[in-house]
Amino acid sequence: MSQQLMALVEQPNLKEDVPPFEVGDTVDVHTKILEGDKERIQIFSGTVIARSGSGSREMFTVRRIVAGEGVERKFPLHSPRISKIEVKRSSVVRRAKLYFLRDRVGKAVRLKERRRG
Q1: Whether this model's pTM surpasses 0.70
Q2: In the chain, which ranges are continuous DSSP H helix?
């Protein structure tokens, strides 16, 4: 009963325009940033290394390398601060979480591209 009640409460807050993406995909996350009274869009692009949660509590983690340093950022999937998510590239992965990429540098970070047919 409580699960059904939670789903009913969460339903209006869920986004309908979320593209299907999986762990291993390279995505561009367009985030709304407030600076004073102005609002701008900032793009964070990287590889999705994890997805967790369900419903309105679903989160995903994106990792990229900036100036030789690994940067990870967690985003709530249904947040109003995320204006859109673009899937740039899909990769073949055999894990649900790609935390092993944290230990790799250079060409070892590359993933094999998934061919769409």
Answers
A1: yes
A2: 2-10
Question: How far apart are alpha carbons 11 and 28 in whole angstroms?
Answer: 25
Q: What was the pLDDT predicted at 117?
A: 66
Residue 94 token pair = 């055999």
Q: Does pLDDT of 1 surpass 80?
A: no
DSSP state of 50: E
Which secondary structure element, helix H or strand E, spans residue 76, and what is its range?
Answer: strand 69-76
Burial, 60: exposed, middle or buried (Cβ in 10 Å; 0-12, 13-18, 19+)? buried
Dihedral class, residue 53 (left if φ above 0, else alpha if ψ from -120 to 50, else beta) = left
Q: 47 and 24 in contact (C-beta within 8 Å)?
A: yes
Please state, in angstroms and rounded to a whole number, the distance separating the CA atoms of residues 105 and 117: 31
